[in-house]
Design goal:
Immunoglobulin-like, six-stranded mixed beta sheet, alpha+beta, 3 domains, five-stranded mixed beta sheet
């Protein structure tokens, strides 16, 4: 290699490296690329002394403003993903152009298996939600959504081996034991997979998958509904997929989407406030922006077959919005892992949807719901003591939760008995050990202030046929 070539090679290399720095004073648009407020320039002196975090803060400031950053990241991810088929930006590159969210491999290979107690606690929790809804004249259905890899596993890289059982299949077995009303959405979508019900380059189902899923949900509820059978559609390559955006933030490849020609009934959004263009707002809610969509309430202004819907959902529920709005007089959609049952209308329907990879969250925190009272409950022999009890007055309810010592799992039910002056009252708690107590065996519940439970009580917690003394608590 002659000297002139070496000089030219080094000059080109240095020019490429210097280009982002040279452009830095002229680029101001990274805030939109980063989708966040950019880090402020740090100060060397902070609170009158040397800022020990200056280097870290400066690195963050510099990265937020580096020109061509998204283009460089996209180029690097293209080489890793498309050339070497290696995971990049939390994305797994499968065969035939299929992309998968990296976290799906845990469920796919069953490396994140929940304990038998956690699964039973999740199933009991869902059963208590169903009991609450049906006791008030409503209909309930639980919708565990399968990861894309669970339906289209044949496109996963061969280095990942699909397990015969995982958290979703084991949870469904527990739900069957308790006769909980749920949709086996994995089976529904697998039966229709040849039609193409998931995006290739997105985490989620497409609008055809959502339409099929909607009909399965309404059938399981036993609710009258429009099926939209025979609706015409356009199949257009115009969907900017979320996994593709992770790989290529500044460019990327479009995915196909079904666009149905359906005439929905007129409706309006009553929440969030300030919406003037319903169709524009609906399009935003159905996108992956996830802006101002924590709680959406819609009022159907046509002739709906059903009265009220309360739907707890995650990102999969976005595509269901137009179908549900069209079939209920009033519908509420809350993006959350755990339901707030104070939002469930008496006599209304409830849909609880959560994706497979988030199943562990069901038993991580108790839903907000007043604990049902169990009359005639007989306390068994005391076999231990409650390890920790927390009782707080939240104003709207008394919150009581705690941790139990290890014990043999039987039915997974947990009962809390309060005794005062020889009188006992027993309530069924969620069999959940709140995260701050660190464990998988506990109890958690809310008591209605209308019960008039004030004063000092002896606490007894019964779980798996054994009673545990909790000492005195003040409600």
């Amino acid at each position: 290699m002659n000297k002139a070539f070496k000089i030219a090679y080094a000059s080109v290399f240095l020019a490429i490296c210097a280009t982002p720095l040279i452009l830095m004073p002229f680029v101001t648009g990274n805030a939109e690329i980063e989708k966040k407020e950019l880090t402020a320039m740090p100060s060397l002196i902070k609170d009158g002394s040397l800022n020990n975090d200056f280097s870290t803060e400066f690195e963050s400031w510099f990265n937020d403003r580096l020109p061509l950053r998204s283009e460089l990241l996209s180029a690097a991810d293209f080489v890793k993903s498309e050339v070497f088929s290696s995971p990049a930006s939390n994305v797994i590159t499968g065969s035939d152009g299929w992309l998968f969210f990296n976290d799906e491999k845990k469920d796919y290979m069953d490396t994140n298996a929940l304990s038998e107690r956690q699964l039973r606690s999740s199933a009991v929790t869902v059963s208590l939600l169903e009991e609450y809804v049906t006791s008030r004249g409503g209909r309930f259905v639980f919708v565990p959504m399968p990861n894309k890899a669970s339906v289209y596993g044949e496109y996963m890289p061969s280095c990942y081996t699909m397990s015969r059982m995982n958290n979703l299949s084991r949870l469904c077995a527990e739900l069957d034991k308790l006769e909980v009303n749920y949709v086996d959405m994995k089976q529904v979508l697998t039966d229709n997979k040849d039609q193409g019900v998931y995006h290739k380059r997105d985490t989620h189902w497409n609008y055809l998958g959502a339409l099929i899923g909607y009909n399965a949900i309404m059938d399981k509820l036993g609710a009258d509904h429009r099926t939209y059978g025979g609706a015409s559609y356009e199949y257009k390559k115009d969907w900017r997929a979320d996994l593709d955006k992770l790989l290529y933030p500044s460019s990327g490849f479009m995915d196909y989407q079904y666009h149905f020609d359906i005439e929905y009934q007129p409706f309006r959004f009553s929440a969030p406030a300030g919406i003037t263009d319903e169709q524009e707002a609906l399009a935003s809610f159905m996108s992956d922006k996830e802006e101002n969509d924590i709680r959406i309430t819609a009022q159907n202004e046509g002739d709906a077959a059903n009265e009220r819907l309360y739907m707890v959902r995650d990102s999969f529920g976005r595509a269901l919005l137009p179908f549900m709005i069209d079939n209920y007089e009033k519908s509420m959609f809350v993006r959350a892992d755990n339901p707030d049952m104070s939002m469930a209308s008496e006599g209304g329907d409830m849909v609880y949807e959560i994706v497979e990879r988030n199943i562990s969250r069901i038993a991580a925190k108790a839903p907000y719901m007043f604990a049902p009272e169990r009359e005639g409950f007989e306390i068994p022999a005391v076999g231990g003591e409650v390890e920790k009890t927390v009782c707080t007055d939240e104003g709207y309810a008394v919150r009581l939760y705690g941790k139990l010592p290890e014990g043999k799992l039987t039915d997974g039910r947990t009962y809390v008995t309060l005794t005062q002056n020889g009188t006992t009252r027993t309530f069924e708690a969620f069999p959940i050990c709140e995260k701050e107590l660190e464990g998988d065996r506990g109890f958690s519940m809310y008591l209605s202030p209308d019960l008039g439970l004030e004063g000092e009580y002896e606490l007894t917690v019964t779980a798996d046929g054994v009673a545990y003394s909790g000492g005195k608590i003040t409600v």
